# Entry
Amino acid sequence: MLLNDPDLVKLLKQAYSAEKAAAFAYQGHAGSVSSKEEKLAIKQIEIDEWNHRNEVLTLMNIYQVPVSKWYEVKNYIIGKTISASCYLIGWFMPFYFAGNLESGNVCEYVRMKRLFNALNITEHDEVLYEMSLKEKEHEVYFYEQIKTSKLLPYFERFFAWGEHKRKNDIDLELGFKIEDTNTYCEGFHEKKKKPEIIKEEQFEIVDAQASGLTSQI
# Structure
């Protein structure tokens, strides 16, 4: 079965490759911190990203979506670059930008579920819900590490993520249920179809056609 939605196909390709970039980045992040607890937590998040990559590949194989060589090369370079930079930019920034990234990834899988559902495909609801939930847990973890930092308000002002700004509207304390998933992240990278403008000449053609049909009845 092929997917009749180019946006969904593109999203699958991007998500598959982006998970590799994230996993590589967390390798450097885990290596750059001195706390054993932080190392273990970040290493587990890396494992989660590899698992997500495998889950997305499974979906791609089902619908014969090919892996994008361009996205793979691009995200390999991005991931390795971020991984190396973690040893140079201090403790705060890797945590901050990881949380910022994960905040957007939450909506990525919510949107993926919504696009599948629009095609009347619901058998992947649970795995997509679980991945979006896991990404949200990642975001919460990174935020908790830096929430008392004096740098956070300044970074939030410029990068739109922090105590008051998030890239998703999910609050785990209020609950996040699979049956409500499609009500979250509305408008996330989704194109709104512009209303079609009908010219006066088109109205005249329609009227003429209608008059012809009427005369035949």
Notes: The chain has one domain: 6-216.
